[in-house]
Amino acid sequence: MGSPADTSKSIKVERYKRYIRRVNSTKLLNASSKLLFRATLLVALILVFLFTFNYPPLALADMYSTQRHLQAHSHFLSSGAWEKQLRHSATPRRPNGLTVLVTGAAGFVGSHCSLALKKRGDGVLGLDNFNAYYDPSLKRARQAMLAKHQVLIVEGDLNDTPLLHKLLDVVAFTHILHLAAQAGVRYAMHNPQSYVTANIAGFVNLLEAAKSANPQPAIVWASSSSVYGLNTENPFSELHRTDQPASLYAATKKAGEEIAHSYNHIYGLSLTGLRFFTVYGPWGRPDMAYFFFTKDILQGKSIDVYETPEGKQVARDFTYIDDIVKGCLGALDTAEKSSGSGGKKRGAAQLRVYNLGNTSPVPVGKLVSILEGLLNSKAKKHVIKMPSNDGDGPYTHANVSLAFRDLAYKPTTDLPTGLRKFVKWYVGYYGLQTSLKKDIPSA
Ligand SMILES: O=C(O)[C@H]1O[C@H](OP(=O)(O)OP(=O)(O)OC[C@H]2O[C@@H](n3ccc(=O)[nH]c3=O)[C@H](O)[C@@H]2O)[C@H](O)[C@@H](O)[C@@H]1O
């Protein structure tokens, strides 16, 4: 046993040691928390740098797509109610009615077709990504118009694979009317990637989902008159060359036709491509000439009217929307079933391509003079040579005998009649009735 002095000394030594251990461990804690803090700061700085300076489009696009993905997934999770809404919209209200997924349903042709299908008792579910290629508020207005008719549009992208699979799982679609695309001939010079993303990757993604579905739906989709490219035979027939596209837009549509061939061949998907010829009408696309000419004429701004390098007028086979809708419905009604199921081909399936035009080309100068009459305003015309490198062609002219034979397609609206209907809608939609000096003359 030691003396009391020894004991007190050893207690003090022990207390000191504990003190030192505590100090050391606090130092260690401080050091590691400092390290942690610095690491967190570094990670945060790197993230801020990536998002803000380094890859803004990529990082933001990823963020938005993840957000949309999560939104879609949160729909999936609270799925009962959401799935019920999908099924309600997609259920036909007539015996043997079609069950159609319409992609691009908030678009020009998509909204008209969705409404026409719904009105005759078919089930329609829309899909649209509401992108900002042109004023999204017009797309929202079309969506609201469709909602009044119990057509639901799911907000989502063609490239969102889980979403597509989910939609095809929830509803046994008999048909897909695929109209979602990056449209516009000249914009391809400015944003080529958007054409590849929507018209090629998006189309393949849709076909992948459709081929795996059970039952496989039949697919009708929008190709374009622009696939005729440098073809000089006239009027354009489905038998003519389409291997000389004059724009990237045309090339992606032509690629779509070839991709359709391969999915038909490998998986037995029933596929019908429709080559639309410059579609116009109420609820149309603001990026198209007839639409922005109307706006500019009313605002007293000058318009560029193109002529060919040889000084000739350019002409288009302008086709009225109601005629195009009849062609789309005719194609859906005559589409045979896909032959495969669950990704396996069980036999040959239908593969078709049709022109849907008006069979009557009109020079752009004539389009302008019709608008001048309807708007009661003189256009400030600026006639210029067509920019040589923007993919534009001098004229289009459809031979529609195949569509007439197989789809009973027969266009009935001439340009003056169709433009009158467009202008009537335009002044109503934008609330301009009173600014026009006189009423739009009726037919
Ligand atoms: O037929 C088609 O498949 C294509 O029709 C239209 O393309 P486009 O015929 O070029 O339609 P607009 O851009 O409205 O041009 C119509 C006419 O006006 C002319 N134009 C265009 C713009 C302009 O400022 N001035 C002008 O005279 C064009 O050369 C063309 O002859 C659509 O924009 C495409 O999405 C569609 O695929």
TrEMBL record:
<keyword id="KW-0413">Isomerase</keyword>
<keyword id="KW-0472">Membrane</keyword>
<comment type="similarity">
    <text>Belongs to the NAD(P)-dependent epimerase/dehydratase family.</text>
</comment>
<feature type="domain" description="NAD-dependent epimerase/dehydratase">
    <location>
        <begin position="100"/>
        <end position="337"/>
    </location>
</feature>
<dbReference type="InterPro" id="IPR001509">
    <property type="entry name" value="Epimerase_deHydtase"/>
</dbReference>
<keyword id="KW-1133">Transmembrane helix</keyword>
<protein>
    <recommendedName>
        <fullName>UDP-glucuronate 4-epimerase</fullName>
        <ecNumber>5.1.3.6</ecNumber>
    </recommendedName>
</protein>
<comment type="subunit">
    <text>Homodimer.</text>
</comment>
<dbReference type="GO" id="GO:0050378">
    <property type="term" value="F:UDP-glucuronate 4-epimerase activity"/>
</dbReference>
<dbReference type="Pfam" id="PF01370">
    <property type="entry name" value="Epimerase"/>
</dbReference>
<dbReference type="InterPro" id="IPR036291">
    <property type="entry name" value="NAD(P)-bd_dom_sf"/>
</dbReference>
<dbReference type="GO" id="GO:0032580">
    <property type="term" value="C:Golgi cisterna membrane"/>
</dbReference>
<keyword id="KW-0520">NAD</keyword>
<keyword id="KW-0812">Transmembrane</keyword>
